[in-house]
TrEMBL record:
Keywords: Calcium, Lipoprotein, Metal-binding, Myristate, Repeat. This is EF-hand domain-containing protein. SMART domains: EFh (SM00054). The keyword Repeat applies. Belongs to the recoverin family. It comes from Rotaria socialis. The keyword Cytoplasm does not apply. Residues 78-113 form the EF-hand domain. GO terms for molecular function: calcium ion binding. Pfam families: EF-hand_1.
């Protein structure tokens, strides 16, 4: 969809902006960016490297999942399935590569240490062409991507009609606050933001 995505170096002021918005210490963000540059090619990260980074992130989790009954192969397969689901959500142009901006969006959304409000605020800015409103096209993309990521069955058109009716939309544009309230108050999304990413796993591998 569209032309092949081109990576670029992230400017210092952009890192400052991310750090200030979601309260990730700048030194930590610098380390994340340094690691991204090291494993990416031309500032673009492929799915294989994202799988590896995802596993590294999970290994540092204070509450990693415990699978005592699963073999290493099955654990690896489940991790890859989850990583691929996340990768697809943030590969917005379907290029098979993530820019640093897309990668850090995934990183931020998965960090339970960052408040849901701050995560949503950052996410909104990635989809918005305006600081306060979201267009129907970008709103649909955001809602559908979040539905895919969290495994939530959502009727986009019904959601958008409700938002238009109760948010005081302007020319079909929805205020940031209305969309944020929707994600935080909808039971399925609220649970996902509090408990982490919950997506369907593939069926167990056949035993031969």
């Amino acid at each position: 969809m569209g032309n092949r995505q081109k990576g670029r170096e992230t400017e210092s002021w952009e890192l400052d902006e991310i750090s200030n918005l979601v309260c990730i210490p700048r030194y930590q963000l610098d380390k994340i960016y340094k690691d991204f540059r090291r494993v990416s090619k031309n500032y673009l990260l492929d799915k294989t490297e994202f799988r590896r980074i995802y596993k590294d992130l999970k290994s540092y989790s204070p509450n990693p999942p415990d699978y005592p009954h699963l073999c290493d192969y099955e654990i690896n397969r489940r991790n890859n399935a989850m990583a691929d689901r996340i990768f697809k959500t943030f590969d917005r142009d379907n290029t098979g590569r993530l820019t640093f901006n897309e990668f850090i969006s995934a990183y931020i959304l998965l960090q339970s240490a960052i408040s849901p409000e701050r995560r949503l605020q950052y996410l909104f800015q990635q989809y918005s062409q305006d600081d306060d409103y979201l267009t129907p096209i970008m709103g649909r993309r955001m809602i559908e991507n979040m539905s895919d990521l969290y495994g939530v069955n959502t009727d986009y058109q019904q959601v958008w009609k409700s938002l238009e009716a109760y948010s005081g939309s302007q020319n079909g544009h929805i205020p940031q606050a209305a969309l944020k309230n929707y994600f935080l108050n909808d039971p399925a999304y609220a649970s996902a933001f509090c408990n982490g990413v919950q997506v369907p796993l593939p069926p167990p591998s056949p035993q031969f």
